[in-house]
Specification:
Rossmann fold; 10 helices; 227 residues; two-stranded parallel sheet; mainly alpha; elongated
Length: 227
Amino acid sequence: MVVLVVRLIFMFVGGIGGYELGELLQREFLQSVDPSYHIYGFILSIIVCVGLGFVLGGAAGRYVAKLLNRFEVAIQDIPGTDLLMGAVGIIGGFLIAFFPSMILFRSYPGWIFALILYTVCGVIGYIIAVQKKEDLLNFFRPSLARPAPMAEPARLPPARILDTSVIVDGRIADVCSSGFLEGELVVPRFVLNELQAIADSEDPLKRNRGRRGLEILNALKRQEFVD
């Protein structure tokens, strides 16, 4: 694709050059020739120059394609941040060189010194921007330069596992109501089964203690302390 584009450009330039060459030949060498043959001179000069542009354009296109491939390989190892900051540095250098060059180097040979000034400022801007990219990025993005401290995860109080004796004792309900005990209260399934067995006991004393334990569990559930 690159070879085709460069070849077309050379052919276009060759066509223009052939037209100009045809006019030069007509004006300088073909004045005594029959004017009806002048058009053939134009066509011949255009064809020759376009053909020359086709040949030279192909060679130039292949050379440009090789240069582009080398450039593509070279920039693959350069981080994108360096390329971006380098471009910014060059633009900044050109802006710095613009005003002195407009004031001091207006006439010939001042434009030569202006070109040198643009080159020096662009190179210096590129070097500074690439070497100091971290500082420049931190300057324009201060919030990203200083990462916010990570919040420590909230530590939940450990769960409390209740056994049968604590529930039957009954004072756990008062302790939970006072807010002194932190964390969730967990009653395992086997403790519930044991309380139910005591509540169904034939011994009146055990039966009363078991039913009292179940009533305390129901009270704790209403307080949302038990899982």
